[in-house]
Amino acid sequence: xxxxxxxxxxxxxxxxxxxxxxxxxxxxxxxxxxxxxxxxxxxxxxxxxxxxxxxxxxxxxxxxxxxxxxxxxxxxxxxxxxxxxxxxxxxxxxxxxxxxxxxxxxxxxxxxxxxxxxxxxxxxxxxxxxxxxxxxxxxxxxxxxxxxxxxxxxxxxxxxxxxxxxxxxxxxxxxxxxxxxxxxxxxxxxxxxxxxxxxxxxxxxxxxxxxxxxxxxxxxxxxxxxxxxxxxxxxxxxxxxxxxxxxxxxxxxxxxxxxxxxxxxxxxxxxxxxxxxxxxxxxxxxxxxxxxxxxxxxxxxxxxxxxxxxxxxxxxxxxxxxxxxxxxxxxxxxxxxxxxxxxxxxxxxxxxxxxxxxxx
Length: 360
What we know:
By secondary structure, the protein is of the alpha/beta class. 35% of the residues lie in helices and 14% in strands. The chain is globular, with a radius of gyration of 22 Å. The two termini are 35 Å apart.
């Protein structure tokens, strides 16, 4: 239903849950989830990739948990760090006919080897997802989710960055990874982390591309999750070289940091960047960038009309790709290893990185 719920469901499945009950008052979410396939990585030949999930409204949810207390009281208790799971007496029987389809898709990986005898065994990853949402057969006319900005644009930038890296190899090797099934749960990135092409312990960081801005140049650049790792210093330096500044995420409520491929690497401990154009567009009024992005999110994002348009101005996308190529060069030529900042939100990532370095 959302990122938080997905993470909880994943944790429950890992611990042997037979099913998940999600209580939500959002009727649109419930309707969408009722018809949209649920995807996950196959754990083995027989185990389900996803848990059986039941979505119910608040009234039905209240009746389900009534033997253990009120829904409001249980929610309030769950917000406490001292909360422990509560067993709800009774049995729940669900009768349904699931239709499970296994499919195989692919990540696409290329490498620019490093020039230094020691550094070539250290890696910088540049990632971008090559999938989108397929088709919506309930629509009349255009049914195809072309994903022109999200994320054909990111793939285009990745390819140009790969050409740039190949023309001037750096000390460290640079791995370019076009991931699959990002839109349905970061599954390609998750698969890579479980089956890495190069050692995760030798991976310095991840620069992730997700969405290309087609509306011209900006005076600023946005880092989603600004301040979470020392990689931000590289972005600030690269932005300054273009006479630009780094600004904060204008959509913190969207929780974009955990919604793109770099997050799969972050959970494994590897610092990652998710960077894109800012909102201060050259030649436009101050509020224009936020208004245009709001319009895209409301009318085009994850819809079939995310198409290539004749009025696009790709000068900003080119400048962003050059900035990120500079970030990759700086990281690939560095002898230091990026680190997570000392913040509450990075505690789990720091622990994962410590384990990764101690047990490569």
